[in-house]
Every structure is written in C-alpha cells, then in structure tokens.
Specification:
Layout lengths: L45 H39 L4 H4 L2 H13 L7 H32 L1 H15 L3 H12 L3 H25 L3 H9 L4 H38 L5 H10 L3 H29 L15
Helix pairs in contact: 3-11, 4-5, 4-7, 4-9, 6-7, 6-9, 7-9, 8-9, 9-10, 9-11, 10-11
Length: about 325
C-alpha cells in the first residue's frame, strides 16, 4: 500500500436519457434552485433606492426648518428683550422697527431715491469689482505660479500691497476718483484680487508634477500644459475663493459708499447712522445679507455646473451604504 492520500475525482451526473452530462451551475447570490439548473435574477432593491433618493430632499427640508426655527427664536428673544426693557431699541433697534423701515423704503422710498436704485448702484459696483478682480487674480496667480522668476520678483510688492489697510485705500480712491462709481469699483477690485490671487497661485503650485511631466513627454507646449493640465487642476482652488470674493466685493462697494457717494446702500446706512436711526442701519444690513446669500447660491450653482465632470464625493455614513 502506498502512503499517498487517495484523491477522488468529482463525478459529473449524467442524465439517464442523454449522453451529455447535466449542467446545473449554481452561482452565489443568484437565487438558483438546486437540481434545476436555472438561476433566478436578483430583484432590484427599488424601495431602498427610492428611499436613498428621498433622503437628500428630506435633509434639505429639515435643514431649512431648523434654520427658520433658529432665526425665529433669535428674533423672538430680541423682541422680548426690547419689550422687557433688557435691550435698548435706541442702540440696538427692534425687529418690528426694522421690518417697518424696510416696508417704508420699499413703498415710499429713501431720502436718496427709490430703494431699487440704491440696490442697483451697489450691485453694479460689486459685480464690476468682482469680475475685474477675479480675472486679474486668476491670470496673475497662474502666471506667477507657473513662472518662478515672476513670483520671486513680485513677491515683496504683493506682500506690501496686501498689508495696506483697505480703509486707507478707500480714502485714497475717493480722493483720486471722486464720489462716482470708479472709487468703489477700485476698492472692490483690490479686495477681490488678493483672495483669488493667492488661491490661484497655491492651486497652480499644488498641481501634480507627474501630470505635467507626462504632458511634456507627449509633446505638449508650455501653453498647452497650462491650459489642459494646470488650469483644470487649480480650478477647484479658484472656485473656492470665489465663494468669499463676492462678499469682499460687496464690502468694498459699501465701504466706498460710506466714505463718500451720491447713491447706494452704503450711503443709506451712513445716513441712518447720522440720524441715529438704528432700525435703518439694521434694515440696510438685512438687504446686504439677502444680496450676499443670493450671490452665494448663484456661485454654488455655477460651481456644480462647471465641476459636473467630478465624481461625487461621499463622506461619513453615506460611504458605507
């Protein structure tokens, strides 16, 4: 006898009425019935998929409800403090007075003209400053990020310019360009430029060097590498800076109007301040906040449209599902 372990060959069952073996493949998870050789297709989890689709909508409604609840609680506490004497409305205003001031501006108008004219003037200044500052910041950031000698040459000047207080620049622009739109646009451009510039510069420096090397090996010129590799890679950095840049543009327009203007929301806020009308100051701030939130929504929609090629990023518990 041999000490080797005996091996057995699996026997394939043969149909008595046929000369071919019975083929009954069984696949895990297919719901195959033993002995029949037929596999049932898995039923799609339709209910689970629909539930997952409904979750973002439910979450948005839940967040909206919670935000409204927080806002209502803050306004209610503010109004109760005014009625209870804990908050002096002369210094802090009250929600009812702010609402009445907004209604008066919308129906009767402001001392400088209709409320719509003031909003349009401020929006024009902010949008122009935002567009010009963003373009200059993107171009200069990518240029200095790609050309090392330029970044080393202009770095001291940019750092010195960025350290100048913006209120001083606003005063200089008001004296140089007067009370017109030019001084407000210039101040908004300066505020937007540095935010976009530093993000574009850093995004250009963070591009994967292997991608650039591979593109150069394939014969791409320096311009093609910048256009097809560097710019798409830095695009997320640039778009991230745009979310805060419009707020900076709005601040630049308002500060310029407060320093000296003929129209605008900044002038409206300054006039209310000079008349000790705290409700008017807060009403102007409410209008500015609505404009900023609307612009943020538009920029977010633009970002989702431009970055639709990017795969969805899943975080937390959603990654397990």
């Amino acid at each position: 006898m041999s000490d080797r372990p005996s091996t057995t060959t699996p026997v394939t069952p043969v149909d008595p009425g046929s000369s071919t073996p019975l083929e009954a493949p069984l696949r895990v998870g297919t719901g195959a019935t033993p002995g029949t050789g037929t596999a049932t297709a898995p039923q799609p989890a339709t209910g689970a998929r629909q539930a997952r689709r409904r979750r973002p909508t439910h979450r948005r409604w839940l967040l909206a409800g919670l935000r409204l609840g927080i806002l209502a609680a803050l306004l209610g506490a503010w109004q109760l403090g005014v009625h209870g004497g804990a908050i002096d409305p002369f210094f802090w205003g009250d929600p009812v007075g702010v609402w009445q001031q907004l209604l008066e501006w919308a129906t009767v108008g402001t001392p400088q003209g209709s409320l719509g004219d003031q909003i349009i003037v401020t929006l024009e200044e902010a949008v122009l400053g935002f567009i010009i500052g963003s373009i200059l910041g993107i171009v200069c950031g990518i240029a200095l990020g790609r050309v090392r000698i330029l970044s080393e040459l202009f770095a001291p000047f940019l750092k010195a310019a960025n350290s100048i207080p913006r209120i001083i620049l606003g005063s200089i622009f008001t004296v140089a360009f007067g009370f017109g739109i030019q001084s407000k646009v210039m101040l908004a451009v300066v505020l937007v430029f540095f935010g976009v510039f530093f993000n574009a510069f850093q995004g250009t420096r963070e591009v994967d060097r292997n991608l650039i090397a591979n593109a150069r090996l394939l014969g791409a010129s320096r311009w093609r590498v910048t256009r097809d590799v560097v710019l798409p890679s830095a695009f997320t950095w640039i778009l991230a800076s745009l979310h805060i840049s419009f707020g900076f543009a709005l601040i630049g327009a308002l500060v310029g109007e407060i320093l000296g203007a003929n129209k605008g929301l900044g002038l409206l806020i300054r006039s209310s301040q000079n008349n000790f009308n705290m409700d008017g100051v807060l009403a102007g701030m409410v209008i500015v906040a609505v404009i900023a939130l609307s612009a943020e929504g538009l920029i977010t929609a633009l970002e989702n449209r431009l970055l639709s090629w990017r795969p969805p990023q899943v975080h937390g518990a959603a990654a397990v599902e």
